[in-house]
Amino acid sequence: MKIILLGPPGAGKGTQAANIVDTYGVPHISTGDIFRKNIKEGTELGKKAQEYINQGKLVPDELTCGLVASRISEDDCKDGFMLDGFPRNIFQAEYLNKYLTENNVALDKVINIEVDSELLIERACGRRICKNCGATYHIKFNPSKKDGICDVCQSALTQRPDDNEETVSQRIQVYLSETKPLVDYYTEKNVIANINGNQDINKVFEDIKAALA
Ligand code: AP5
């Protein structure tokens, strides 16, 4: 199963990616997570990426495309993978298309999670993440059992530095101008499934499973 998860910031890509991994066992490749890991480890890539991420801008294509190609060429991706947050503009989509064609790989589905724009800021700004295991919560829509503590590993929950109102608004603008055109791009390729992401988390996953069936 080769899948792309598409959608604006806060749409629920990471949340549904966790459900997809649990059910289908495909490797989850999130460019945002890869950049955040590099920032935490203080690598050169992390230092460069941080500048852009903190401003809500896209990390340049030359830092992004190669790392995705190298990740999907690894052994565990032979039978499938799920890209979350890549591609994010037409250049990245063309790059991926060329890479997949050259390697005789076909995409099975692009899952496009659609959410009304007025919900996105509340979703992103209310998000809390476990520093230790990466589990995602929301203070209102998906709270942890104990305030500020992860249900899975009991570690402290934290907020992403780019989850403030100003940066999320900028990320939404970038999504509209650079990423949203990919909906038409993949519609033309006949691989897209549009999912109503305004619904409850479990209902969204039911619709995703139906689209992947
Ligand atoms: P990235 O990490 O990819 O962030 P994003 O695309 O902005 O998406 P988010 O992680 O904010 O949201 P999500 O859709 O995963 O939502 P979630 O499931 O957490 O990218 C971060 C940055 O890295 C970018 O800005 C850019 O700088 C850089 N970058 C990454 N990839 C790049 C690329 N390819 N090229 C260049 N730069 C790149 O849900 C959000 C919240 O809502 C959670 O709290 C959740 O609990 C809640 N929630 C989820 N679903 C529902 C629901 N149905 N109902 C109610 N609440 C819900």
Write the layout of secondary structure elements.
Layout: E1 2-6, H1 13-24, E2 28-30, H2 31-41, H3 44-54, H4 61-72, E3 81-84, H5 90-102, E4 109-114, H6 117-125, E5 127-130, E6 136-138, E7 157-158, H7 165-179, H8 181-188, E8 192-196, H9 201-212
Parallel strand pairs: 1-3, 1-4, 2-3, 4-8
Antiparallel strand pairs: 5-6, 5-7
Helix pairs in contact: 1-9, 2-3, 4-5, 6-7
Q: Could you characterize the architecture of this molecule?
A:
- The chain is of the alpha/beta class and 213 residues long.
- It has one domain: 3-Layer(aba) Sandwich (Rossmann fold), CATH 3.40.50.
- Helices cover 48% and strands 15% of the residues.
- The chain is built from 9 helices and 8 strands.
- The strands form 2 sheets. Strands 2-3-1-4-8 form a 5-stranded parallel sheet, with helices on both faces. A 3-stranded antiparallel sheet has the order 6-5-7.
- The model has no long low-confidence stretch (mean pLDDT 96).
- The site of BIS(adenosine)-5'-pentaphosphate has 37 residues, from α1, α2, α3, α6 and β6.
- This is Adenylate kinase.
- InterPro entries: Adenyl_kin_sub, Adenylat/UMP-CMP_kin, Adenylat_kinase_CS, Adenylate_kinase_lid-dom, P-loop_NTPase.
- Keywords: ATP-binding, Cytoplasm, Kinase, Metal-binding, Nucleotide biosynthesis, Nucleotide-binding, Transferase, Zinc.
- Monomer.
- Its EC number is 2.7.4.3.
